[in-house]
Amino acid sequence: MLILAIDTALEACAAGVLDTSSASVIAQQSLAMKRGHAEALVPLIAQVMAQSGVDYAALDRIAVTTGPGSFTGLRVGLSAARGIGLAADKPVVGLSTLAAYAAPLVSDNTGTPIIAAIDARHDHLYYQVIAGDGTTLLRPRVAPLDEVFDALEHGAPRLVGNAAALLAQRWPADAPPPLSVLDAPAPDIAWVGWLGAAVSPGSAPARPFYLRAPDAKPQSSPLRFAPQPPA
């Protein structure tokens, strides 16, 4: 199976082509960025596809992160994935950013719980608690940072996500320390591809997964007499 993976949910603009038959990512690129995904993504995808030597028509599906993450970044990635899927007549699958963060730790088969955490700002986190075998112990949610420590009832965890270091810094002194801390600005694009290969298109829709309303919202209606952008 050939999968084009796309991630613009957080502080990276990334794409890669996974070939499951050879168990390898045959081309990938990732640019660190907080803004500018809209300008960077399409050229980056074109470069990755050229490097892979794979034609869009040869892809089996497109996988894209759906959030939680940046409101603007998510729209950019999802729009690109849907556009490619429509043009190439290929299915598009959506994957939680938290699941993409946790996937490499689940693959280690250590059996210890995982807390995948993303900075939601204002001292809040998006997080999910996952058993070592990949079973969900606590569904994705947004909560004050200190509330995350309630998950310690599942045992000393491994931490992953762009808020992993923040969690470790605030760790209760009387609690068993985390077993590992993997702080990364964005998920590994290879694991976005592997998750995209594992899910069913019917059960993994490519639509935004926000957990809460975005801080910035488009106007519901334009101001009177305001010029309208071209269609």
Automatic annotation (TrEMBL):
One of its GO terms (cellular component) is cytosol. One of its GO terms (biological process) is tRNA threonylcarbamoyladenosine modification. CDD domains: ASKHA_NBD_TsaB. Residues 209-231 are annotated as: Disordered. Signal peptide: none annotated. InterPro entries: ATPase_NBD (IPR043129), Gcp-like_dom (IPR000905), T6A_TsaB (IPR022496). Residues 34-137 form the Gcp-like domain. This is N6-L-threonylcarbamoyladenine synthase/tRNA threonylcarbamoyladenosine biosynthesis protein TsaB. It comes from Rhodopseudomonas faecalis.
